[in-house]
Design a protein that fits this description.
- It is a single chain.
- It is built from 7 helices and 3 strands, in the order ααβββααααα.
- The chain is mainly alpha-helical.
- A 3-stranded antiparallel sheet has the order 1-2-3.
- A hairpin with a 4-residue loop joins strand 1 and strand 2 (26-29).
- The two termini are 23 Å apart.
Amino acid sequence: MAYRAGLRVKEIARLHSDNINLEKGVIEVREGSKNGKFRDVSIRTPDIAYFTDLKEEMKGQYICRGVSEDSLNRGIRRVMQDLSLDKKYYATTIHSIRKLYASERMQEEREKGLNERDSWCVVQQNLGHGNKFREELYKIYIK
């Protein structure tokens, strides 16, 4: 979820299958959002099949079935350790994966013809940071 939709760890832990709106092509972030702000995150074309299958498989359930936020990050660290990547990428967490999402999504928006600033506004809105250009976030996620 962090990679495919840029969701925060708390948003992932509280995502319900009903929040995958295939008709609108969005993930409706309603629970766990920062400051209680709801948002819709567009589903990218390559991820439609993934979210279609996930919605069907998890019909009427929470995606992570009550897994805690801390457990998600510990799980990532465990996998990194199992792959012997924990020394090189020792600080990998959901937030690191959100940065990867932001970089890739930024490139996609640029390929659509948007300029750097407008591309970042789209990306930061999907990340849940509003749609007004925020340079400090741009520096954290992209530069």
